Fold:
Amino acid sequence: MQRRNFKMPLFIIATLLFGLKTYIVYRFMFDLSIENAMQEFILFVNPIASAYLVFMISVWLNPKRQMKYLRWTALIGSLVLFANLIFYRNFTDFITIPVLFQGNNAADLTGSFLTLLHWEDIIIFLDVVVIWYLSKQKFNLSVDLPKTSKIAATAVTFLLLAGNVVLAEIERPMLFVRAFDREYLVKNIGVYNYHLYDMTMQTKTRAQRVMADESEISEVESYLKEHSPDQKGEETELFRIAEDKNVIFVSVESFQNFLLDSEIKGKETTPFLNDLKESQDTIWFKNFYHQTAQGKTSDSEFIVENSLYPLGRGAVYFTHAQNEYNALPEILNDNGYETSVFHANNKTFWNRDVMYDNLGYDQFYGEQSFQVTPENSFGWGLEDKAFFEQSIKYLQSQEKPFYSKFITLTHHFPFELPEEKANVELYDSGSSTLNHYFQTARYTDEALQQFFEQLKQSGIYEDSIIVLMGDHYGISEFHNKAMGEFLGKEIDSYEHVQQQRVPFMVHIPGYEKGEINEKVVGQIDVKPTLLHLLGIEEENDLTFGENMFAKQEKDFVALRDGSFINGDYIYTDSVCYDRQTGEPVQEEQQGEACAPIKEQVDQELKLSDNVIYGDLFRFYDFGDEESKSGS
Ligand code: GP9
Ligand code: MN
Structure:
């Protein structure tokens, strides 16, 4: 008897239908990569939890309004999903608010809208039809719950949400802070919650931008004038050495200096790089520091392209991809270079597709430009050897001179390599990460060697300079004990800073005056250095870094956490160390030695942050073409 009278409330029916539909769309209509059972589970649970969250709100409304709310919510939700699907088919990406309002994207979409439609898209609206129909008065599927039940229903929402967030956090630690890929976000929290997150981020960024005013850029300008050694236009022996040559810039994943000249069971880890750094055609900066923070590879790219510091929290590539910049690719474009990036990963990772456009890159060869097969991929994807090999044909098609950035992938945490591809043995310590680190490094070393050979064979080598740079550390502090064993010394704070040195080599075929340069430099100095080598003078540029070849030195390299390194000292964790000995400076000299520079470091980081938060470059005139030689 009771059973016959039972009617499932519409908000529950809607939750099930809409949730299931969303799951089907995620799973079969988007092309999301599902790597393990946990991801699959989250992908299934999340749409149902999200649907419940939205539809449950109806229980607080009166019966008539409940029905209206459910109908319209189902329709609007489906439209949002549909819009994302169409956008995804065109851009392999999800909608972000700023991108939505970018004219060219919208135009791109309207032009190709019909070709982006598939017949099965009808699935997206099937549940809406059912919900709409069932919401009619005659079915009477509204509920009138007592207050306690309403509260209980709402509480379930928070439980579901919290459960989802916890699962997502387990699956991708720091997902929200780092926000490294929209696809990961959507996979873990769903497209609706992702839009909420995107809106919050957008509002925050907007507010900071609105508050900023023009006078702030003058402050940055006068600081830089006052503190940078006057070296603009200084003509060193290397000025213009690479004029009109192609620039091949290789960002080498997770490569730290300690790999160079290291051996595992009597075998060199990096035989190719060991030779390269000593070559007559190479200038190797052995005291070059990475300066990245949470944005990892994308931070290193950002620093190199702009000679600005990354942010302390989040990745600028995500948070401020719409800002005005005076980036390296843009300057090179103005000087007749074709500019491109090669990286065999999702284009959306680190928001690269959006940011590269803004920075002025002409081409981005992402995962889809490469043939990725089970034989040539593992870990993070396409292996470096295949990556370089498949890139040559694209490189040959670039108009000369070109600037091409390559970002390697194989030597990435957790540094896994199929056994048959390993040419050094595993290290033996308590850290499995460190144990594996050498094998993938050796692999990438071989890939680089092969790349150099292919560049020679294809005739590109002679007309190019090749710059190699480690993007950031690969072995974090968690492995200090194992690292200490490997290096035969304790990793204290001083040594930890020293381990942030990464390879930086400028290889100029035919140069013959190669050297090992011991100057203390960092990623922030790359942009002015490259421009110097190419003979491009940017009179009005605002850079926090300096040309590494200049005779007059800037006083320090600042790390994002406020530590710094200069010729004499290393300051970190509130202690001032003697750079040569690694001993803390005598108590009474501490203040004198590090304090004035520390003050400048803090000021500089803050000014760079202001530029980013306030989008201050929009107020500044970089002088355009006239100031650039060669145009
Ligand atoms: C991803 C690759 C690695 O595309 O650049 O990023 P990371 O985790 O090193 O920042
Ligand atoms: Mn990286």
User: Anything to note?
Assistant: DSSP finds 22 helices and 18 strands in the chain. The longest helix spans residues 182-211.
